[in-house]
Amino acid sequence: MSALQPLNTLLEQTTVARDAALGVHRNALNAVAAAQAQATQLAEYRQEYAQRFGTQFQRAGAIELLQCYQGFMVRLDEAVSQQQRLLAQAVERGDTAKAALLNAELRVASVRKLIERRIAEAVRTQDRSDQKATDELASRAAWLRLAGAAPGAALGAV
After folding, report:
1. What is the pTM of this model?
2. pLDDT of the residue at 130
3. Cβ–Cβ < 8 Å for 44, 152
């Protein structure tokens, strides 16, 4: 089985690479979840703020207060937009990490399949060798029986 040692080493390396890709994928998923939570929280806050102060502006209010409200709403809209961009980037990194993980899984599976094939090939070779040795022994035994029976048969007839 020393012929499998390079393949076993390759399997170890691909497994380590796959495990690393799995870690990157998990981190990417966590980043997506965090970005999504942040985006949701910002959007909810914006909506609550708009509702809270929208009712206040139905009553008479100072122009300065309205300008502050509008300025803050613009900044909130920018924050929501920026968070949506960050979320999109996190999703893209997650997709890239998922593709890398799938490729790593495929490499591990391919190496395992190659090892299985090599083992099966070695077993078939050994079986053929054993069968050949068994056939050769049977042939020799039959030949010895025939060779041993022929002189005795000739002696018994005389």
Report:
1. 0.71
2. 94
3. no
